[in-house]
Every structure is written in structure tokens, then in C-alpha cells.
């Protein structure tokens, strides 16, 4: 089974756009837009504790969000390693479609989103994607994952996130050590790494779910 890297990356980037809000430090949670930006920044920084405390979510959704956050952090480190090695071309390590995806780019999409506030609830509708729901809790806005569309995709996609996180981190180290001469070579290696790891995971899962029933030979 060939893994479509473009779909994997779209899932990671798309899921990160679903999030919004965070509670502490110098971040701003006074409006839904400000909260969305704060959560985006926390996700890129890999701040799982802040991200999880910034949403209204079931335990399963919270764990899934943590997995996506760790991938976003690993993704940022991979891009940084690629840029340090290959210059601006390093931003294309995931392919052209992901070259301009950054916290700043996502903040711009949040700024341009349609926002409707109704008392202590609000919706934020980006130009692309579903509207997300927020609630104001103790004066701070939080993303209401329990009542936002697309959370089933979050939970489902999170199952592959540990694999992606591991391979992002592995490739970042290999790039830094000089293993790859070009960004194209590194990008091809990334696709092969994730494809191989996912296939192994699927085979392991299938073996666990459907153990052999062949006769013992007695």
C-alpha cells in the first residue's frame, strides 16, 4: 500500500487550523481570533499542556490534540533543519503545497475568517473549512471541540501521528548530519520513511486483530 504523503500533510495542516485558544503567559485570549492565534503558536511550539488546557474536549479528543501538537512541533524542527542545510529550498521539504504553511500564514487565515459572537459563544469560519465553535470560560475563549465539526477526523488522523512525529524527527537529524545532498533527496526519503513505517504498523495491527488460525500440525 502506497501512502499518499500529500494527504498526510494536508491532514496535519488542516487539523492544526481546527484549533484555537490557550490560557497562560503573555498570550491573548480576549477574543476568538486572538485565542485561535495563541493556540496555533502553542501547537507550533509543541506546548502540549497549554494546548490541552485551551480547549473543551473529551479525553479522547484531548489526547488526539496532543498527538497533533507533537507532530506540528516535529514538523517545525524538520523544516528548520532543512532550511539550515538547503537554504530557502528547505521549506519545500514536504513538497510545494506545504512550503508556505507556517504559524504566521495560519494567523493570516484566522484574521480573514468570519467571526460571529453571541454572548459567551462564538463561531469562527475560515475561508476554507468548517466553522469552529468557541465558548468563553472565566473571561477567556476556548475552542469547543465537543461541539465543533471535524473532530472525528482529528481522532482518526491522530492514530498515525506518532509515526509521522518519529519520522519527522529522524529525518531532521539525518539532514543535520549531512546524509542528503539535496532537498529532493531528503523529501523522497521522508515519503519512504513514513510509507514504510505505516505499512509495518498496519501489518502489526492486522496480526494482532486477526491472529493466525492455522492448524498446529499435531
Question: Can you write the helix and strand succession as a string?
Answer: HHHEHHEEEEHHH
Structural class: alpha+beta
Sheet with the most strands?
5 strands, mixed
- Relative helix content: 40-55%
Q: Count of helical segments?
A: 8
Main β-sheet, spatial strand arrangement? 1-5-4-3-2
Strand content: 5-15%
Unreliable parts:
1-7, 16-25
Amino-to-carboxy terminus distance: 36 Å
Number of domains: 1
State Rg.
Answer: 19 Å
DSSP, total strands: 5
Shape: globular
Question: What is the average of the pLDDT values?
Answer: 81
Task: Give a quick summary of the entry.
The protein is an alpha+beta fold and 218 residues long. The protein has eight helices and five strands; from the N terminus they run αααβααββββααα.
What keyword list fits this structure?
alpha+beta; 218 residues; 8 helices; disordered N terminus; 5 strands
Explained architecture:
By secondary structure, the chain is of the alpha+beta class. It has one domain. Helices cover 55% and strands 11% of the residues. Helix 2 crosses helix 4, helix 4 (59-86) packs across helix 6 (151-157) and helix 4 (59-86) runs parallel beside helix 7 (161-176). It starts with a helix and ends in a 9-residue tail after the last helix. The model is unreliable at 1-7 and 16-25 (pLDDT under 50).
Topology, element by element:
Blueprint: H1 5-17, H2 32-45, H3 48-52, E1 55-56, H4 59-86, H5 103-111, E2 114-118, E3 121-125, E4 132-137, E5 140-144, H6 151-157, H7 161-176, H8 183-209
Parallel strand pairs: 1-5
Antiparallel strand pairs: 2-3, 3-4, 4-5
Amino acid at each position: 500500500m502506497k501512502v499518499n504523503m500529500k494527504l498526510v500533510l494536508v491532514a496535519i495542516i488542516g487539523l492544526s487550523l481546527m484549533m484555537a485558544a490557550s490560557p497562560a503567559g503573555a498570550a491573548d485570549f480576549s477574543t476568538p481570533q486572538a485565542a485561535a492565534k495563541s493556540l496555533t503558536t502553542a501547537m507550533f511550539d509543541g506546548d502540549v499542556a497549554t494546548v490541552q488546557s485551551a480547549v473543551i474536549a473529551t479525553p479522547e479528543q484531548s489526547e488526539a490534540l496532543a498527538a497533533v501538537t507533537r507532530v506540528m512541533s516535529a514538523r517545525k524542527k524538520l523544516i528548520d533543519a532543512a532550511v539550515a542545510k538547503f537554504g530557502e529550498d528547505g521549506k519545500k521539504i514536504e513538497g510545494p503545497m506545504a512550503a508556505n504553511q507556517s504559524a504566521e500564514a495560519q494567523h493570516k487565515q484566522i484574521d480573514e475568517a468570519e467571526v460571529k459572537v453571541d454572548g459567551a459563544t462564538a463561531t469562527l469560519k475560515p475561508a476554507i473549512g468548517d466553522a469552529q465553535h468557541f465558548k468563553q470560560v472565566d473571561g477567556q475563549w476556548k475552542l469547543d471541540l465537543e461541539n465543533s465539526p471535524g473532530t472525528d477526523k482529528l481522532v482518526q488522523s491522530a492514530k498515525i501521528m506518532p509515526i509521522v512525529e518519529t519520522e519527522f524527527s529522524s529525518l531532521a537529524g539525518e539532514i543535520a548530519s549531512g546524509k542528503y545532498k539535496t532537498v529532493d533527496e531528503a523529501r523522497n526519503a521522508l515519503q519512504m520513511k513514513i510509507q514504510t513505517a505505516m505499512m509495518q504498523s498496519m501489518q502489526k495491527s492486522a496480526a494482532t486483530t486477526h491472529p493466525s488460525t492455522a492448524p498446529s500440525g499435531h
